Design the sequence.
């Protein structure tokens, strides 16, 4: 990166925000894929069954909890 660009706080803030946005998008895509494969066992209809809804909710919560644990562990190093 050009040194003059590296000293631009607005550019650095923008790049960090974009990096965070990309990480969130990647996490959502991974969560969607993992939880869908785990919880949707048949062809989906017009709405999810109660067991699918419950499974998706719990799966997403566990995924978010684990992501937070991992992020905290990296931040503490």
Sequence:
């Amino acid at each position: 990166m050009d040194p003059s660009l590296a000293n631009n706080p607005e550019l650095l803030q923008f790049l960090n925000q974009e990096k965070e946005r990309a990480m969130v998008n990647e996490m959502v895509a991974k969560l969607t894929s993992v939880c869908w494969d785990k919880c949707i066992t048949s062809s989906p209809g017009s709405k999810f069954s109660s067991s699918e809804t419950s499974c998706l909710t719990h799966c997403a919560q566990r995924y978010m909890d684990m992501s937070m644990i991992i992020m905290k562990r990296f931040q503490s190093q």
User: Anything to note?
Assistant: The longest helix spans residues 9-39. The radius of gyration is 18 Å. The chain is about 80% helix and 0% strand. The mean pLDDT is 87.
